Automatic annotation (TrEMBL):
Domain DNA mismatch repair protein S5: 207-325
Record bears the keyword Nuclease: yes
Summary of the function given for this chain in its UniProt record: This protein is involved in the repair of mismatches in DNA. It is required for dam-dependent methyl-directed DNA mismatch repair. May act as a 'molecular matchmaker', a protein that promotes the formation of a stable complex between two or more DNA-binding proteins in an ATP-dependent manner without itself being part of a final effector complex.
Gene behind the chain: mutL
Name of the protein in its database record: DNA mismatch repair protein MutL
GO molecular function, one term: endonuclease activity
Bias kind Polar residues: ranges: 363-374, 391-410
Amino acid sequence: MSKIHELSSVLADQIAAGEVIERPASVVKELVENALDAHATQIDVMVAEAGIQSIRVIDDGDGIADDDVLIAFKRHATSKITSRADLFRVQSLGFRGEALPSIASVADVVLNTSNGTTGTSIHYRGGKLLKQAPAPLRKGTDISVTDLFFNTPARLKYLKSAQTELANILDIVNRLALSYPGVAFRLVHNHKELLKTAGRGDLQQVIAGIYGVQNARKMVAITGESADYQVTGYVALPELTRASRQYISLLINGRFIKNQQLTKAVIKGYGSKLMVGRYPIAVVAIHMDPLLVDVNVHPTKQEVRLSKEPELAKLISTTITERLANVNLIPSALTNLGSHRRERLNTDQLAMDLNAASVQHQPLSTDPTVTKATPASMATPVTAGKPDSTAKPTTKPATHLADQQPSTAPTEPIMIAARNELKTPMIAEFDAKYQHEVSALPFGKPAAKPTRVAIQAEPAAAPAESAERFPTLRYLGQMHGTYLLAEADDGMYILDQHAAQERINYEYYRQAIGEVSADQQNLLVPIVLDYPTSDVLKIKEQLPLLAELGLHLEPFGGNSFIVHAHPTWFKAGQEEDTIKEMIDWVLNDDKLTVAQFREKTAIMMSCKRAIKANHHLDDQQARALLKKLPTCENPFNCPHGRPVTVHFTNSDMEKMFKRIQDSHTAQSHN
């Protein structure tokens, strides 16, 4: 008897199902993608017990012709491609033809479909056809999947908790809704509605339905274009972050994909505006020639291979950087405290107006057990009047980044000594350079107030010069030797003095380190550094990189290096620690680029030379700090992403003191 034999079709389908159908969410993904490929404009997804008990997907798409239904359940059967050339121009979500047979091989599947001319009902269980009959002529497809993995119990064993599996389903539907804002989606779990979109084509309204209206207000539209790619979407302001990259959605030609390099490009676009360990919410839609992307490299088709990936990554990061360049990024103090947003009365009224304008999404199913339950939190979808293609950000994206940013002329770090050293030449020189009499300080006009359009993020102001995006502040006083209090015409500002000086110093050192000169400070006593052999080999490979930053290490026999001089921007007394830290970066990351090295070094030096908390400043020093801060390229965050200042609007102050409740009373008290 031959040892080699051909697998049965049922067993082959079950093996294929192991690649395509990993969990209930995989079933939902494949069925919804089929509905989208069938040009559905409304898709209802009903699941029970996180999809393990049942999954039902109803759409109003093209449906399947009577003579094609049986073929659709055969392996490698598809209507999406016909020749080898089609593989290089895939524009549909599904094309392999394995989804339906794979699902039918491990579950009980009942499909009712009609193309408007013929209607067919078909029943499969464990890969075997049980029944075929005519069906009503309601155009579209209604498919139910029950008893998932009934014949592959090992697969059930590896499923997570019901909450985790449901979260995976919700994540899949959310991503598809973001990819297709023109399609109305509805997700119901155990008769409870979890998601509902209106299908008006407005991406920001879909974002509002998924992440909430208040979060959608903190997102701004982006648009960028190159010869090969077009990038659109929405990104969150730096104040709106999450603890993981999970909330960054990348969409290529309507397909949600996972790509580490493009995700890094989104984060890179924020520069130092994000706090360490925090990540933005972003929806980035990329449109490109299908020839530049290969979607046939992974069974689930979520990982793709891109041509010219570095160019695309650069376009994404540059687009985000330019979009945030002239936006007022000072967060509301009340928002940072997790309290009510400023101007809440107007916000609530706007939400009511949006709800009143919403389009009622009628479920495709007439099953009363499906439609009867609608939780209050999701009862009315948030919709807007215009599709995403016509929604315009209030700040026009700049064509050239250099046109938006402040002058790149090198700044100088602020050095503030202890109170008993205030008369040192260093402080006197600084004061002479940057300080003026209080009466001569320019109390210019305040930053322009944001304009609201639909649910556009509030801080997004109209295009303005960089100096106008940061208000002119009048110093009031210092609190606990840590915070500076200041005022402007639009309210009160509280600044973190350490974060402010750290930002000023960072921009100085970033410039100084980038222009390494021959200026070196000789050491009276050379520094000798010892490392194990494994580290010595790595360090020797990176000696040219260290030299580009002005740090010259000379082999000193055995496993030692000697340093005779260091760049003049090293802080006195911390030379050895700084050198060791720079070498540690090389040891921890052998792919560190010169640009990354300079960035890390600038951050380190700016922190080491910044004033700390509980350090009291005199009025002259504080005013000098406030005068220098607006000249920074980014005066809103320290290099680690922490906010430099928070803002209490005049309205916030009036609310806190209950003056806004009765305008007549407030006026009588003025």
